[in-house]
Amino acid sequence: MADEKVKSEAMQIIGMFQVLPRLVVFDLDYTLWPFYCECRSKREMPSLYPHAKGILYALKDKGVDMAIASRSPTPDIATTFLDKLNIKSMFVAQEIFSSWTHKTEHFQKINSRTSVPFNSMLFFDDEDRNINTVSKMGVTSILVGNGVNLGALREGLTRFSQNTNAVEKNKQRWKKFSQKPNATSSKEKEDD
Ligand SMILES: [Mg+2]
Predict the structure, then answer these.
(1) In the chain, where does DSSP find H-type helix?
(2) Tens digit of each residue's pLDDT (9 = 90 or more) over 3-24
(3) Nearest to 34 by CA among 47, 25, 19
(4) Residues with Cβ within 5 Å of ion ligand 1?
(5) Which residues pair with 94 in a beta bridge?
(6) Coil, strand or helix: which one is 40?
(7) 109 C-alpha to center of ligand 1: Å?
(8) How far apart are CA 169 and CA 64, in angstroms?
(9) 151: alpha, beta or left, given left = phi > 0 and alpha = psi -120 to 50?
(10) Could you tell me the distance, in angstroms and rounded to a whole number, from the CA of residue 27 to the centre of ligand 1?
(11) Which domains does the chain have, with CATH numbers?
(12) Coiled-coil segments, which residues (predicted)?
């Protein structure tokens, strides 16, 4: 599918959701592109997964910010490739460094750079351990099997709005709950 066609389909998918994440964070290797960039030479011309560019452009058009969280040990190659693909300027934060943690540091840095709370972020990655760790921080995290594509985008936005609705419902429940004790305590006083 050509980039333009993917973009218009992605725009339609995004348009179906009332609540959108404020920031969408992507891993690089095996999420945006189908290789480990540490195994490649800077002189090569990289290519993305077939749907990746269309999805990035659709999010951009819809005003959703984007960032990168990658544990690549070769950030110089990664940034050279982002530059060659003409997508480097699309990301408001690019955290590319190897780490012992499974991206908790990456997300803390993204959070302090952008001030976007974790529960307003959506994250795509191909590794279970990153998904597990980052979702515990409150980020809606989606495991991709074959790179980011329109199916993963739809799944991500669905899960994000479900999580947001759950948070809202809990807030309302707490509001009711915190109002009740006053009512009960005054009643109890009457009863006493
Ligand atoms: Mg990866």
Answers:
(1) 3-15, 52-61, 75-84, 104-114, 128-136, 150-191
(2) 999 999 999 999 999 999 999 9
(3) 47
(4) 27, 29-30, 126
(5) 68
(6) coil
(7) 18
(8) 24
(9) alpha
(10) 6
(11) 3-191 (3.40.50.1000)
(12) none
How far does the centroid of ligand 1 lie from the alpha carbon of residue 182, in Å?
51
Question: Can you say whether the dihedral through the CA atoms of 157, 93, 70, 29 is positive or negative?
Answer: positive
Residues acting as catalytic residues: 27, 29
How remote is the CA of residue 157 from the centroid of ligand 1, in Å?
Answer: 20
Tokens of 49: 């997964």
Structure-token match 């990301």, residue found: 91
70-113 tens-digit pLDDT = 999 999 999 999 999 999 999 999 999 999 899 999 999 999 99
Residue matched to tokens 């972020």: 121
